[in-house]
Structure formats: C-alpha cells, structure tokens
Specification:
By secondary structure, the chain is mainly beta. It is built from nine helices and 34 strands. A hairpin with a 2-residue loop joins strand 16 and strand 17. The radius of gyration is 29 Å and the shape is elongated. 34% of the residues are buried. The N terminus is likely disordered.
Length: 523
C-alpha cells in the first residue's frame, strides 16, 4: 500500500471555517473506540440508535451483525471493528449505526459515537493506493486520511463504494424497492396474498412457502441410519416411507445454539422436488400472509447454500422473517443421498410399512389441516384459514358488543372482529394466554378472528380417515363445540396408536354466531 500525501497536509480547517472554499468537501466523522473515521457527507443518509432487534443471518461472515428494517427497507449492518479484526467485540445497544446510501444501496455501519461535520480542503487529504492482490482485501475500505490540528488529529476515510461491495454483505436496492412498494400498495386489496409457515431456530425467524410443507409433527423417536451425520440426525417413517431428519441449526451453521424448550420442537416435513425431507426446528409459530412485493430482497449472503435465501418479510408485531426457497436448500447430489439413499437402504422397511399404510404415490385424495386446541383438539382445513397471528392485548372494545366479542383488531389497515370461542361456547376463560393464537377466517368481504388456546400442527389427512360424526355425539345438547361439528378424523399416530379429532367448519361456527348474535347479519 502506498500513501500519497498532498502538500501542506499539516494545515487544518474544522467545521468552524467561516467561508466555504471552492474545492472543499464535507465529511461526517465518528469514533470506533479511540480511532476516528470519516465518510463523505453526501453518502450518509442518517444516524440511528441500535435497534431493539437485529436478525442474525445464518452462514454470514463474523463482520455482518445481521439485518434490521428501517421504514420498510432491510438494512444489513456491518461491524466495522470486526471487519478489521475478527476478534473485535460483538455489537451491543450502546452502538450507533450510520446508514450509508450509495448508488441506491444502503448499508449500516456500527460505531460508538458521532463526531462532527468537517469541511476539508484538498491539501488536508491523503489518498491510499493498494497493489493488486488476489481475493478480497477488507482493508481496502480505508481509502485515505484527513490530517487536522497540524497533524495531531488523524481521521481514516472510508470508501462508500467498497463498503457496499464487501463480499457476502447483501446489497439491498432500497430506493427501488420502496418505490415499487408504494406503487403496488393501491392494488393490495385486489391481489392474492401468499402464505408461509413461520418457525424459529435459535433467535431467528424463518419461513417456508405453505405449498412446500407436507406436514408438521411432534418430534418422535428417531431411528438410526447408516447415513447419520452432523446434518442428518436419523430417519422417521412417514406414511410408509423413510424420511431423513435434518438438524436445521446445523444446516445453517448454528449448531452451537442451545435449544431452550425441547418440548416446543417440531419436525417440518417439506417436499423438495420429488423427495420429502424433515427439518428439526425449535418451534413452529404461526402462518403469515404476505404479498409478493412485500418480500424485501436479500441477495448473496454466503457462497454456501446462498440460493436458499429468498428474501425478508417484515411486518409490524412480527419483526423480520427470513423467507427460504426450499427448492434451493440442497444440491441435487445431497437430495439423492439424503432422501433416495434412505429409500434404497431401507427398501424392506418401506415395503413392510406399505402394507400398513397407503403408498406414497397413491391416488387417494388428501387434504391439509391445521390442528388447534380449545379444551379439546380440533382440525380445520387449511384453505378455510387466511392466516394465523399471535394474540395480543389492547384491542379496541366497542360498547354494546356481546361478551364473546373480545374486540376489534386493526390488521394491516383492515378491521377484524375477534371472537372469544371459549366465551361463545360457555367454557371457562384461560388464566394464561401465552400460547393463544387468532385464526383469521373470511366471510364475504368481512374477516373474523377466532381465539383458540394453541395451534399445534399441520397434518395431511387421507379421505379414508374422515368420517361423519357419530349420531350419539351430535344428539348431545351440551355446550361443547365438538357436538356441532359434522365430521371427525380418525388417523394412526404410531404403530398402535390412533387419534380422533373433530373437524371445525367455519360455516357451522357462523350459524352458531348468528343464533347467539341475531342483531348481526351473517347471511
């Protein structure tokens, strides 16, 4: 590296310079520890406090702290200290973030304290020139120096162009994305929303497209496999076929994560091409609805499995969700090894299971259901549910409403009437609503939220497992939701175990609501 100094570099001019000089440049300064840095003022959009939550990105380098959303734009945050020294301290809430906006790309830079606005003359600047090197040189982010106070004060100039092009830092075309979002807002009411299932691994939220998920199950006892590895934990029998179970935290390079609540763990069985793979996750949270243009871009984060990062969903009350492209998680070779390898190795077991269950390629029709609890366990066909959201207090409580009307919720500029199903069916209230969810259903142009105790799993049910509700149950007049439902599911849950679920139908619920609240028009 060669430092090229301008003459008279010791002469200093601070922000107090009274008359601007023709060739001067404006810089903003800030401190990282005891070192002082500067950026051209033209590329500093703003300085913000450390956000309440920064979402860590799996498979990212140490200097990429994560991402957060600022007024609808995903901002990647670079820890400048770790860019220079991998052993530097991690970020904390005492840091500030300078938002760099250069050529429509925005990146956040962590630092400790703001400095001042400096008006710098050419002779106060020195430039640095780097020799040709292979690979990436992160020290290239320092493009020169500023000498002030007769050389006693030295500032390092950061190059915005280099900062936004550091390898593995996502480039978010924020202005374009924001503009596109504004243009499309007018069409949201007519557009079809997409759905995804949100789940947690460690402290990070992820999501798969709803269509990718075959089923979500409680973690059974895993069977060993000769293909076991750090990634593949074992296998389960799923509908007569062996399905490999992958540890999602290991897949994301986060194997050090401590699972704080193993009882919440689930296996998400996803369809990848013509194969099925189970992913062990810490918890399955809810179903999130979104528009395609709300999927904020997150380009290349890592050379390892980079294609699986489909973007970021950010919604009030939910935070940032990393949306995954399930088809790009594994290479074709890995799919053959993980999925087809198990089928080939355990062919005898597949044939034995096939005599007890329907084969994978059976023509039997299946439907997908969500199971939830309301004293007892129910199943509702997933097409009847628009989305599932977390319960929160503080809803508007209009006067004159019946007691089972819990309140009015503003969900993305649409008012939702929230019904307390426990109150509607004369059940005692819950003392702890920690796990309470709200199922959003539609009737015409209106939407209603149904409060349930918990949402448990997503299951796939064959036609042969659905039966009319026995007459002895339906003739009972007791205040029990099960007695109003017309269908039950009876399905195997293990070798010698079965489960019976009442099937919740929204139309049956609306008939009950009409009887209890004749003043409202539910026709």
């Amino acid at each position: 590296m060669e430092i090229l100094e301008a003459p008279d570099a010791g002469l200093a001019t601070k922000a107090e310079t009274r008359e601007p000089l023709a060739a001067t440049e404006l810089f903003g300064s800030f401190f990282l520890g005891k070192e002082e840095f500067a950026l051209p003022a033209s590329c500093i959009r703003e300085v913000v406090n450390f956000p309440e939550k920064i979402t860590a990105i799996p498979l990212s380098p140490l200097f990429l702290t994560g991402i957060f959303t600022l007024r609808g734009t995903v901002i990647p945050v670079v820890n400048l200290g770790r860019l220079f020294d991998p052993e530097a301290a991690d970020a904390d809430n005492s840091h500030k973030i300078a938002i760099i906006d250069y050529q429509q790309v925005q990146v956040g830079i962590l630092f400790h304290a703001t400095g001042e606005i400096l008006r710098v003359r050419p002779e106060q600047r020195s430039t640095m020139r780097y020799g040709a090197r292979g690979g990436r040189d992160v020290h290239g982010v320092v493009t020169g120096t500023i000498q002030l106070e007769n050389g006693a004060r030295l500032l390092q100039i950061l190059d915005a162009a280099t900062l936004i092009n550091i390898e593995n830092v996502p480039q978010v075309l924020a202005l374009k994305a924001a503009s596109r979002k504004q243009e499309n807002n007018l069409f949201h009411l007519q557009a079809e929303r997409r759905q995804c299932v949100r789940f947690h691994v460690g402290s990070t939220s992820f999501a798969f497209e709803m269509s990718a998920i075959r089923e979500i199950i409680v973690v059974p006892e895993l069977q060993s496999s000769v293909l076991n590895s750090n990634l593949c934990l074992g296998r389960i029998n799923f509908r007569g076929s062996p399905v490999a179970v992958v540890d999602f935290s290991t897949l994301l390079g986060a194997g050090h994560v401590v699972h704080q609540s193993p009882t919440d763990q689930r296996i998400v069985i996803a369809r990848i091409g013509d194969a099925s793979v189970g992913f062990l996750v810490d918890s399955v949270d809810n179903i999130v609805s979104f528009f395609t243009d709300e999927l904020l871009p997150i380009p290349l984060l890592s050379k390892a499995r980079a294609g699986m990062f489909g973007g970021c969903i950010s919604q009030p009350g939910i935070g940032e969700i990393i949306f995954l492209d399930h088809e790009k998680i594994f290479s074709r070779t890995e799919i053959v090894e993980i999925s087809h390898g198990h089928a080939n190795l355990y062919q005898d077991e597949v044939q034995t299971a096939g005599r007890r269950h329907e084969p994978e390629n059976s023509t039997v029709q299946r439907k997908v259901y969500i199971t939830f609890t309301l004293e007892n366990t129910f199943a509702v066909e997933i097409r009847q549910i628009r989305e599932i959201i977390d319960f929160s207090e503080g809803m508007t409580d209009p006067p004159g409403m019946p007691p089972f009307m819990h309140g009015i919720l503003n969900l993305r500029q649409q008012m939702i009437s929230v019904i307390d199903l426990r109150c509607l069916y004369r059940m005692p209230p819950l003392n702890d609503r920690t796990g309470t969810k709200i199922l959003i259903v539609e009737r015409g142009e209106e939407r209603y939220g149904l409060m349930v105790d918990t949402v448990e799993n997503i299951i796939t049910v064959a036609d042969g497992d659905r039966f009319p509700t026995p007459k002895i149950m339906r003739s009972n007049v007791a205040e029990d939701l099960r007695h109003e439902m017309e269908e039950v599911i009876d399905m195997a849950t293990g070798e010698n175990a079965r489960q019976t679920l009442s099937v919740f139908e929204s139309e049956v619920f609306f008939k009950r609501l009409a009887r209890e609240w004749p003043e409202a028009n539910f026709s």
